[in-house]
């Protein structure tokens, strides 16, 4: 079962990954096949484990204010700041549609 | 929670939207016929000859818990605090920090679930949801609590809408955001149902998308999708064990009680729910159910009402009229809360007592109330004296005035004696005028009737 061009485009768009060439796609296929081996395990009647911490007790904190108010410290790590804001790069720019961008998948 | 929607609007016309682009807006023209199906849900007629439509609406209600500190950290919660002033190291996602759950939030959630008559899940799991924004150097994360009932506090609602033909599976749904009031909720839902029906009847498809409600234009528009498609990569939250809630039966023997949330303990401490409060008010005071709604919906109004009732001989059924019609409308007109009322329960009770003792008429009472609103601290009796509003108590004086009116209205008297009782009201009115409203209409009527029958 091959991975379709639609799915590959979807992955490139979501993960901002560039499959580059057929070898990249082949590697992906192999990775999926590898993971598919999980299906060979019979899990009938086995309760899924939600968390390795399932037999630990979840600690509940009292509703007191005990931290925060450390703006200066937090901003010490900021490369760029304006007043008390972190300055970040511009917002998300979605990838152009498949037909309009340069990708190995174009030829497929 | 899905509820059948009621929407019908007409055909939509196109309106130029601020910022460019055409946006459909409602034009009041033909309305779709709506009928109810066997389950009581609304069914909308299709374009002539086409199959009818069933809309399905789900409301996603977000409410902020009222707490001192945050859900997963000990940072303060405060509206409009300066930027980054409340952020702790965990909130800033610095490496090595871990979430710690706030007990008060858990209790609030349980309380709300109980108040809404939900069944409370004993075990809840946390999932992690990832957001990828270019302006965050690493994927943002949200920890979600799954299978857990609602919380109390600040409120927000998103509406999920789809349509389908009866008997067929549900259609593709859209999510509508930016709805800021119940009225807008109704408009947004109505619009979206219509939009989807028109789209489908014209051969189009509905995208599973998020739309924003534009309150000015009364329509929904696709939200500018800043990330394109989203893959949230849901996974079990590795840093939080499951949350277990207990009740009296399942309570472990030797556990630190600070670490235990006991559903039954919380249930016992729930205050009277509104439905119970309303029923009590109706039973205790003999007021109408709709009165009880208003009393409860206005902060402090029930207390005000009960305080007045305590201090006056007037029956609660009569008092409620003064509370809901006079007091409340004045407060609303001046945008005041009950607590800010210039007229206290004591003053109002004082006034109502004068009325009850028939020392003033109801019209006079309203005049006094108007004076009291000025908040000059005068007592009702003072105002009555100042404005000479007391009812004439001297029976002889009243009789004289009645006689004078009768003497002056020969035609009317003849009409009454001939059997036209309605004309009597005119005479009563004339007496009222003579006495400048200071006569008790019931008494005047009796006197006039007595004189006319002589």
From TrEMBL, chain A:
GO terms for cellular component: glutamyl-tRNA(Gln) amidotransferase complex; mitochondrion. It holds the Pfam family GatC. The keyword Transferase applies. GO terms for molecular function: transferase activity. GO terms for biological process: glutaminyl-tRNAGln biosynthesis via transamidation; mitochondrial translation; regulation of translational fidelity. Keywords: Transferase. It comes from the Eukaryota. InterPro entries: Asp/Glu-ADT_sf_sub_c, GatC. This is GATC amidotransferase. It comes from Haliaeetus albicilla. The lineage of its organism: Eukaryota, Metazoa, Chordata, Craniata, Vertebrata. The gene is Gatc.
């Amino acid at each position: 079962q091959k991975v379709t061009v639609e799915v590959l485009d979807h992955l490139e768009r979501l993960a901002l990954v560039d499959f580059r060439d057929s070898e990249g796609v082949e590697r992906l296929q192999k990775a999926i096949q590898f993971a598919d081996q999980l299906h060979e395990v019979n899990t009938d009647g086995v309760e899924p484990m939600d968390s390795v911490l399932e037999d630990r007790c979840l600690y509940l904190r009292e509703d007191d204010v005990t931290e925060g108010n450390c703006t200066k410290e937090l901003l010490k790590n900021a490369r760029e700041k304006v007043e008390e804001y972190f300055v970040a790069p511009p917002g998300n720019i979605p990838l152009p549609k498949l037909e309009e961008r340069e990708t190995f998948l174009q030829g497929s | 929670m899905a509820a059948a929607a009621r929407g019908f609007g007409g055909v939509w016309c196109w309106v130029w939207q601020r910022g460019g682009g055409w946006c459909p807006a409602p034009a009041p023209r033909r309305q779709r016929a709506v009928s109810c199906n066997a389950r009581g849900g609304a069914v909308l007629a299709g374009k002539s000859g086409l199959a009818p439509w069933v809309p399905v609406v789900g409301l996603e209600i977000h409410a902020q818990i009222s707490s001192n500190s945050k859900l997963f950290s000990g940072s303060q919660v405060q509206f409009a605090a300066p930027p980054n002033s409340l952020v702790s190291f965990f909130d800033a996602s610095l490496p090595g920090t871990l979430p710690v759950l706030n007990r008060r939030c858990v209790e609030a959630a349980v309380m709300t679930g109980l108040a809404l008559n939900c069944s409370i899940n004993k075990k809840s799991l946390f999932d992690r949801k990832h957001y990828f924004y270019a302006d965050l150097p690493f994927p943002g994360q949200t920890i979600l609590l799954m299978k857990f009932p609602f919380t109390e506090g600040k409120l927000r609602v998103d509406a999920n809408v789809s349509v389908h033909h009866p008997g067929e599976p549900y259609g593709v749904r859209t999510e509508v955001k930016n709805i800021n009031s119940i009225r807008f909720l109704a408009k947004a839902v109505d619009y979206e149902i219509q939009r989807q029906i028109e789209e489908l009847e014209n051969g189009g498809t509905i995208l599973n998308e998020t739309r924003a409600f534009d309150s000015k234009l009364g329509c929904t528009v696709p939200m500018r999708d800043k990330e394109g498609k989203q893959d949230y990569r849901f996974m079990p939250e590795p840093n939080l064990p499951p949350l277990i809630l207990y009740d009296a039966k399942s309570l472990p023997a030797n556990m630190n009680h600070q670490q235990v949330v006991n559903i039954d303990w919380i249930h016992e401490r729930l205050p009277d729910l509104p439905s119970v409060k309303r029923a009590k008010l109706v039973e205790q005071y003999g007021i109408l159910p709709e009165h009880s709604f208003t009393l409860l919906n206005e902060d402090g109004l029930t207390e005000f009402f009960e305080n007045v009732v305590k201090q006056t001989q007037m029956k609660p059924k009569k008092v409620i009229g003064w509370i809901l019609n006079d007091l409340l409308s004045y407060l609303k007109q001046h945008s005041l809360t009950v607590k800010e009322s210039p007229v206290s329960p004591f003053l109002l009770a004082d006034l109502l007592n004068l009325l009850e003792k028939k020392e003033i008429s109801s019209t006079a009472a309203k005049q006094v109330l108007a004076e009291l609103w000025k908040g000059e601290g005068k007592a009702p009796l003072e105002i009555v004296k100042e404005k000479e509003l007391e009812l004439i108590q001297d029976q002889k004086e009243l009789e004289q005035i009645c006689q004078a009116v009768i003497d002056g209205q020969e035609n009317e008297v003849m009409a009454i004696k001939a059997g036209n009782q309605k004309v009597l009201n005119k005479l009563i009115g004339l007496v009222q005028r003579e006495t400048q409203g200071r006569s008790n209409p019931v008494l005047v009527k009796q006197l006039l009737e007595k004189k006319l029958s002589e």
